[in-house]
Amino acid sequence: MKPERTSTLPAYQRFEYLTEPGTPTLTLPYTYKTLEGVHQSVEQVVSMLHNRSEICTFSKLQTAVQNITRKNFEMKALGQIKTIVPDDYIYRQEKNIPQYGMQLSSNYQLTVEPNLQVEDSTGPLTAEGKPMFSASLLLKRQNVFKKRLLAYLKEHHKKFLASLKIPLNVPDDKITRWHPLFQLDKVPEVIPAELPKPPEVKVYHSAKDVLEKQRGRLNPLVEKALSKVVADSEKEGTTKSQTNNVECSASTSSNQTTATMKGIPPALLAK
């Protein structure tokens, strides 16, 4: 009796994944691979803080990412991430943010908030009522970053093909491998995008500075009081200047008298 043959899927179905569109031979340069790894670490930290309803400052992000990657993480890398995915995060300069130990800092700090595009509005929410940063969303964003990073690299490859002796024009979706003469190790790094900077805080050193910069925008009583303070200060400064001039003149006269009587015996001067 022959054993029953187990039903198996046809070959065209079992190996269907081999026909799926993809670019397995398009490798990334070292700096681009490093940036991809840094982005994954940033996503992990930002998602964790977001789900705990904590404000993600750059100082927190920097410490956590460096602990994960064991490499330095600077503003430059965050700017490069913004170049590739400019809408993934909301960057702000904020102050009065609690530091470690629950102390408020009066200095401006760069904050990073995920800009979540959630299709299902009925999903779980954070304590602040914002959508949760789910694992599926994290994976989706990482895939988008990798595709855009590859597209950024393809732009350099396209410029290289156009610079050849016989220029080539290959659509991006048709590229399955880099040109043999295209040197990946010499591809420029991702240009970092500009991040928000702390606003310039005007510092006034005297009442005169305040009056000159804010004249016409102050309360009339305040402006009158400042004018009086400025006038008194100028008057006091003039008085001090005159006193110094008198003292200087007296000192000069005394020095001249001393120089004139130089060489005369003290006993004769006493008479």
Automatic annotation (TrEMBL):
Under Pfam families, the record lists: CDT1
Disordered as annotated region, ranges: 230-271
Q: Where is the composition biased (Polar residues)?
A: 239-248
Q: Name one GO molecular function term.
A: DNA binding
Q: Which domain of life is it from?
A: Eukaryota
One GO biological process from the UniProt record? regulation of DNA-templated DNA replication initiation
An example Gene Ontology cellular component term from the record? nucleus
Record-linked CDD domains: Cdt1_m
InterPro entries registered for this protein in UniProt: Cdt1, CDT1_Gemini-bd-like, WH_DNA-bd_sf
Q: Indicate, by first and last residue, each region the UniProt record lists as having compositional bias (Low complexity).
A: 249-260
Q: What is this protein called?
A: CDT1 Geminin-binding domain-containing protein
Taxonomy of origin reads: Eukaryota, Metazoa, Spiralia, Lophotrochozoa, Mollusca
The gene designation is 106064702
